[in-house]
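Blinded run. Sample ID left blank on purpose so nobody reads anything into the name before looking at the predicted structure. Input follows.
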Amino acid sequence: MKAVILAAGKGTRMRELTNEVPKPMLRVHGKPILEHIITGIASAGIRDIFIVTGFKAETIENYFGDGSKWQVRIAYGRQLVQDGTGKAPEIARGFIGASPFLLTYGDILVKPGTYQQMVHRYNEDYFSGVLTVTGSQDVTKGGLVFFDDKFLLRRLVEKPSPEQIEELRLQGWLPPGATVWYNAGIYIFRPSLFEYTAKLQKSIRGEYELTDAISALQAGHHPIAGMAIEGRWVDVRDPEVLAELERETAG
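Blinded prediction complete.
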């Protein structure tokens, strides 16, 4: 298995903090966010990593080099046009070849064991992918995910509006007291994903969205397993989250 990390964005919500460095290079407990991700992926036995860079790409490339310092092999590709998450993984297509791959955003922190649990879940059966989720998040900022009784993906609704959420309640998708699952932004895919990213159209937000490709994959009868993340999951989305992480005890 290989890994792809999407780290092309500037992170405008970080305001002046990302004037000089890309968001994945902001430090948590003395190390860049990206370094925490790379060491976590390596602890799951994944040694071949591709980083999609963009804004201040050389900052990332110069810091990590070929990855040998972390006992991994790192390759890079630049996303020159920031047109959404749906097309970004395609930059790594040649690197991936026929291998399954773990895909994560470069600003999401989890406990290192999460990556190992994902690989275990992927190997439980023949799946086309694994989609991680976390409970009790504000689903209007991300994806609302529904599973069947085997915890396989049934439906994914990206950034639902209050009206959509009310409609889902009325349709019985959100029964009272049930856990509301939020897309945690870390995945495993087979290369079959690229059949669907190739056909993407821009969403109403004017971007190619990875979640649209995932929905198409599922509609094409590709089984996608869910996995709830245990313990810490942090989307380092703004300076307040970053400050809160710094107040935590390291580790």
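Unblinding after everyone has recorded impressions. The domain at 2-247 is CATH 3.90.550.10 (Spore Coat Polysaccharide Biosynthesis Protein SpsA; Chain A).
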